[in-house]
Write a structure and sequence with these properties.
The complex is a heterodimer. In chain A, 0% of the residues lie in helices and 55% in strands. By secondary structure, chain A is mostly beta strands. Chain B starts with a strand and ends with a strand. Chain B has no helices and ten strands. Chain B has strands at 4-7, 10-13, 19-25, 33-38, 45-49, 53-54, 62-67, 70-75, 85-90, 103-107. In chain B, a hairpin with a 2-residue loop joins β7 (62-67) and β8. Chain B has a six-stranded mixed beta sheet, with no helix packed on it. Chain B has a four-stranded antiparallel beta sheet with strand order 1-3-8-7, with no helix packed on it. The chains are: A mainly beta, B mainly beta. At the A-B interface, β5, β9 and β10 of A face β4, β5 and β9 of B.
Chain lengths: 121, 108
């Protein structure tokens, strides 16, 4: 059974750092591009970052560019998100999602339950 | 960046109703449009990809249509488990992978 399990969230002060993990199982993790998506309280889904399957290509939303860093360890079937210089508006539930495709159409076909991050003094 | 606008923002309906919600892209996106369902405390779930293709395992009461800039998601006969928030997402020009702001569907 396919599973994505996020961890590492918590309470952090403004300006602080946090490292999120997403453990994958039940599928060949190294074959898939992966994403982080977040949902702030009372808000909608916001795409945060993407990494390709072998880890040599990354993209970020403008709102996190230069502060967040996505990485992966295919030997450990794990995706990471390093959050630095955290701000109040980074408070959200952070989800990892698997990128899949049919012909030329791409979509996020599997998601985890998320891990909450609260930035507050 | 391509902006996605959903309407309405919220919708009240009853079990058995036919419900339609819309998503509009700020630029042409062909059929590179996905729909997701999200319930509180749950993982978002892919319903429709490529504007009208039903994801495996999703009930056939869900359907999607549209191309270019205007898209719709229809639920033919609402079931109790369908009350959730629905998001559209474009995958035509990425990154970013833009989502709409969501349509919250609740019980009348």
């Amino acid at each position: 059974e396919e599973q994505l399990v996020e961890s590492g969230g918590g309470l952090v002060q403004p300006g602080g750092s946090l490292r999120l993990s997403c453990a994958a199982s039940g599928f060949t993790f190294s074959s898939y591009w992966m994403h982080w998506v977040r949902q702030a309280p009372g808000k909608g889904l916001e795409w945060v970052a993407r990494m390709n399957s072998d880890g040599n290509s990354r993209s970020y939303a403008d709102s996190v560019q230069g502060r967040f860093s996505i990485s992966r360890d295919n030997a450990k079937n794990t995706l990471y998100l390093e959050l630095n210089s955290l701000r109040d508006d980074d408070t959200a539930v952070y989800y990892c999602a698997r990128d899949s495709y049919t012909r030329s159409w791409y979509y996020f076909d599997f998601w985890g339950l998320g891990t909450p991050v609260t930035v507050s003094s | 960046d391509i902006q996605m606008t959903q309407s309405p923002s919220s919708l009240s309906a009853s079990v058995g109703d036919r419900v339609t919600m819309t998503c509009r892209a700020s630029h042409y996106i062909s059929t590179y449009l996905n729909w997701y369902q999200h319930k509180p405390g749950k993982a978002p779930k892919l319903l429709i990809y490529a504007a009208s293709s039903l994801q495996s395992g999703v009930p056939s009461r869900f359907s999607g249509s549209g191309s270019g800039t205007d898209f719709t998601l229809t639920i033919s006969s609402l079931q109790p488990e369908d009350f959730a928030t629905y998001y559209c997402q474009q995958s035509f020009i990425t990154p970013p992978y833009t989502f709409g702001q969501g349509t919250k569907l609740d019980i009348k």
